[in-house]
Specification:
Elements lengths: L2 E3 L9 H9 L2 E7 L10 H20 L4 E6 L9 H10 L9 E8 L5 H16 L4 E4 L6 H13 L9 E3 L7 H6 L3 E5 L8 H11 L4 E4 L11 H11 L4 H16 L11
Parallel strand pairs: 1-2, 2-3, 3-4, 4-5, 5-6, 6-7, 7-8
Length: about 270
């Protein structure tokens, strides 16, 4: 089955991972800007990173027939540095018209601090000004529920934000319903240790009939598995779930959400 990984950090993966994904049916990936495993100190460091996302990674992916898309921001883990964050935010428009740039993300909160919230709101203003979809990072573990509520409240407090153009990622059982009830899209990140397992994701898919749900691997610098979406496909098939529902979650929903960006020019196989 063809699938799309809507949130995978391929700059942290070797080229062999592109080949493996292609062999397993991956036709497209979406790569949000994120923390590089260390805090970058200058706006030029981010400019080089955005060059990598928009110019280098699409060429690596194309070698294996995979279409590569990306999102731009300064990640919540680096948002404590508000002055640097503002420099990066003011630089992002240089890249927004590049092919494959879908919007602003992954923005959000990490430890739910005041500085993180300030930078989140300034990213929101950028997305509104340039009419960009938004991809949201929600915090990990004990900070997730409070942080998710804070993010949803900030989004809903601004009438200019259309929830149908916002994907709230890293949802779990205790946050997914509120995200969907408020009209947003929800992403389930399949990690070997934290976040969500394929079986837990399948439970949420059954509970919500797959509506506005996406599944991703994240595939970043830490313990992660870039082939997690095929694992979910296998799990759903093992449980006897309908093929149309499986395709909806791993292919059709990403296409529908990403189509809200004018830069999404997807060619199905």
């Amino acid at each position: 089955m063809d699938f799309i990984d809507p949130h995978i950090h391929m700059v942290s993966r070797v080229t062999d991972d592109y080949e493996t994904l292609a062999r397993m049916g991956c036709v497209a990936v979406s790569e949000p800007a994120f923390w590089a495993g260390f805090d970058r100190g200058t706006v030029d460091g981010f400019r080089d990173y955005f060059e990598q996302l928009t110019a280098v990674e699409p060429k690596r992916a194309a070698q294996f027939g995979i279409q590569h898309y990306c999102w731009l921001c300064i990640n919540a883990k680096e948002a404590e540095n508000v002055s640097l964050s503002r420099e990066v935010i003011s630089m992002i428009p240089e890249f927004l018209d590049r092919p494959g740039v879908l919007g602003i993300g992954e923005i959000g909160l990490n430890k739910n601090t005041k500085n993180e919230a300030t930078v989140f709101l300034e990213h929101m203003e950028l997305a509104i000004k340039y009419d960009q979809p938004i991809l949201i990072h929600t915090p990990h573990l004990e900070d997730k529920y409070q942080g998710t509520r804070m993010i949803l409240d900030m989004l809903c407090d601004d009438s200019r934000i259309n929830p149908d153009r916002v994907l709230v990622d890293h949802v779990e059982e205790h946050t997914v319903s509120e995200v969907l009830d408020r009209g947003f899209w929800a992403g389930m990140t399949l990690y070997p240790v934290t976040k969500c397992t394929p079986d837990r994701a399948a439970d949420m898919i059954e509970r919500h009939a797959g509506e506005r749900l996406l599944a991703n691997s994240a595939g970043d610098w830490g313990i992660s598995k870039p082939t997690a979406v095929p694992d979910l496909i296998f799990t759903m098939r093992r449980r006897g779930m309908d093929e149309a529902l499986i395709r909806k979650v791993v292919h059709d929903n990403p296409v529908e959400f990403f189509s809200k960006s004018k830069q999404f020019h997807y060619t199905p196989r």
